[in-house]
Specification:
Oligomer: single chain
Structural class: mainly alpha
Distance between the termini: 39 Å
Shape: globular
Mean pLDDT: 89
Strand content: under 5%
C-alpha cells in the first residue's frame, strides 16, 4: 500500500466517525425518551435532531477553517469534536447537556463532508482520484454498519447501556485524531498560501514521475484568479449548478428518509417488529457491498456510468415500492424492493456525490464549493425526513414514494443532458473545462 493510499484512508476515517455518529443514537432513542420523560416533539427536535442541525452548521461554515487553517488542521479539530461529543453525551444527565454535545458531534460531521473530500481530491493522482475520494463514502457506510452491530452487542448490558453505546465512539475518535497528525498538508493549499518548498516535497511523493516545478506552475496558474472571487460569480455558474443538482437529487431519492424510518416503512408494509433490527443490519451489509463495488468501478467506468446505473436502479426500485403500496402487495416484496433501492443508491449517488463535488470547482474555491454542495445536501437531509411521518399519515406512503420516483426520472435526465465526465482529468484541466 503506497503513501497516498494510507493518507487517503486516514482522512477518509472522518467518514467512519460520521457514519457511526449519525446511526449510534438509534440504539439510545427510546431509552432516552423514557429516562427524561420527553414529549415526542421535544425528543425529536432537541434530543434526536440537534446533531442534524450541528451538521448543517458544520457544512455551511466548514469551508472557512478548511481554507484558512488548512485541510489537515481542520481534520484534526474534527477528530477532537467527535471525541468530546462522544464522551460528553455518554456522561450527560439531562437532555440539554446531551443535545449540546450531540450538536458538537454534528459540527464535526458537517465539517468532515467539506474537509475530507477536499483534502483527498488534492493529494490524489488524477487516475486514482475517484477511488480514493470515494473511500470517504465507504467509511461512512462502514461506520453505519459498525454502529448497528455495536448497539446490538452493547444493548442489554444494564440500565445505562445507552451511555456505553454513545461513549464507545471516543476510542475510534482519539485513534483517528492521532493518525491525522501523520498526514502531510495538501500541496494545493500550501501553494495557495505561498509555502512553495513544503508543497514541492509533497508533490514529489504524490507524482514522482512528474517535474514538481511544472506541477507548481500549473497549480499557480489555476490559482491566479483574484482572491476576491467567490463561487457565486457568473463564470462559476456551471460548477455551482452541478454541485447543487447532485446534492439535491441525492436527497430527493428519499435515502435519508428511508434510513431514518426503515422500521416504520416496513410496518406500513405489514411486517412485524422483528424484521426491524434484521433489516437495519441487512441494509448496512447491502450498502457496504455495493459501495465497495462502486469504489472499485468509479475510475474504470467513470462517474456518469455509475450515475446511469444508480438512476435506472432508483426508478425501478422506487417505482416497484410505489406500486406495492398502491396495490397493497404484502409480505416480503417491499423489503426486497427497498434492498434493491439501497444497492442502486450505494453504487450510484452514494459513491459519486463526494467525489464529483470535490472535482468541479477550481483550487482556490474548492473548499467553498464543497461547503455549498455539502450544505445543500444536509439542509435537505434535515428537512425531508422531518416531513415523512406527516406525509405518510396525510397523502400515504405510496404517494411519497411516487414523488421520489419522479425526482429520479429528472436525475436520469440530468445525467444524460448535463453531467460531464470527470474521471482521469487533472483538477486544473477540469477547472478550465468547466469554467465559462
Amino acid at each position: 500500500m503506497n503513501k497516498i493510499t494510507i493518507w487517503s484512508i486516514t482522512a477518509a476515517l472522518a467518514g467512519f466517525l460520521f457514519g457511526f455518529d449519525v446511526v449510534v443514537i438509534s440504539g439510545a432513542d427510546k431509552k432516552l425518551q423514557l429516562l427524561w420523560q420527553s414529549s415526542d416533539a421535544f425528543h425529536g427536535a432537541v434530543v434526536m435532531g440537534m446533531a442534524l442541525w450541528g451538521t448543517v452548521v458544520g457544512a455551511i461554515f466548514g469551508g472557512i477553517p478548511t481554507n484558512t487553517f488548512g485541510r489537515k488542521n481542520t481534520l484534526f479539530v474534527i477528530g477532537i469534536l467527535y471525541a468530546i461529543s462522544a464522551l460528553g453525551t455518554a456522561l450527560s444527565n439531562d437532555p440539554y447537556t446531551f443535545a449540546f454535545f450531540r450538536f458538537m458531534g454534528g459540527l464535526g460531521v458537517g465539517a468532515s463532508t467539506v474537509a475530507a473530500p477536499t483534502y483527498i481530491s488534492e493529494i490524489a493522482p488524477a487516475k486514482d482520484r475517484g477511488r480514493l475520494v470515494s473511500l470517504y463514502q465507504f467509511n461512512i457506510v462502514l461506520g453505519i454498519l459498525v454502529a448497528f452491530l455495536s448497539n446490538y452487542l452493547i444493548s442489554g448490558i444494564g440500565d445505562n447501556d445507552w451511555r456505553w453505546m454513545l461513549g464507545i465512539q471516543t476510542i475510534p475518535a482519539i485513534i483517528y485524531t492521532l493518525f491525522v497528525l501523520t498526514i502531510p498538508r495538501s500541496p494545493r493549499w500550501l501553494i495557495s498560501k505561498f509555502r512553495i518548498d513544503e508543497a514541492k516535497s509533497v508533490l514529489k511523493t504524490i507524482s514522482p514521475d512528474e517535474d514538481p516545478e511544472i506541477l507548481i506552475s500549473q497549480i499557480q496558474n489555476s490559482n491566479a484568479e483574484t482572491p476576491k472571487e467567490n463561487i457565486f460569480m457568473r463564470k462559476y455558474r456551471f460548477p455551482l449548478i452541478l454541485a447543487f443538482l447532485v446534492a439535491f437529487f441525492n436527497q430527493m431519492s428519499g435515502i435519508n428518509a428511508f434510513l431514518y424510518y426503515a422500521p416504520r416503512i416496513f410496518g406500513e408494509a405489514g411486517l412485524g417488529e422483528k424484521t426491524a433490527l434484521l433489516s437495519s443490519i441487512g441494509i448496512g451489509i447491502t450498502n457496504m457491498i455495493f459501495t465497495l463495488l462502486g469504489v472499485s468501478l468509479i475510475d474504470k467506468v467513470g462517474r456518469r456510468t455509475l450515475m446511469y446505473i444508480g438512476s435506472i436502479g432508483y426508478i425501478i426500485s422506487l417505482g416497484l415500492v410505489t406500486l406495492a403500496f398502491y396495490l397493497h402487495w404484502s409480505g416480503i416484496s417491499i423489503p426486497i424492493f427497498l434492498f434493491l433501492f439501497i444497492a442502486a443508491h450505494a453504487i450510484g449517488q452514494g459513491t459519486v456525490i463526494w467525489v464529483f463535488i470535490s472535482e468541479v470547482f477550481p483550487n482556490h474555491l474548492r473548499a467553498s464549493g464543497q461547503a455549498f454542495g455539502s450544505s445543500t445536501h444536509w439542509v435537505l437531509a434535515a428537512v425531508i425526513p422531518s416531513f415523512v411521518p406527516m406525509l405518510f399519515s396525510t397523502i400515504g406512503p405510496g404517494s411519497v414514494f411516487l414523488v421520489f420516483t419522479i425526482a429520479m426520472v429528472f436525475q436520469l435526465l440530468f445525467v444524460i443532458l448535463m453531467m460531464p465526465e470527470t474521471k482521469g482529468i487533472s483538477l486544473e484541466k477540469l477547472s478550465q473545462k468547466l469554467t465559462k
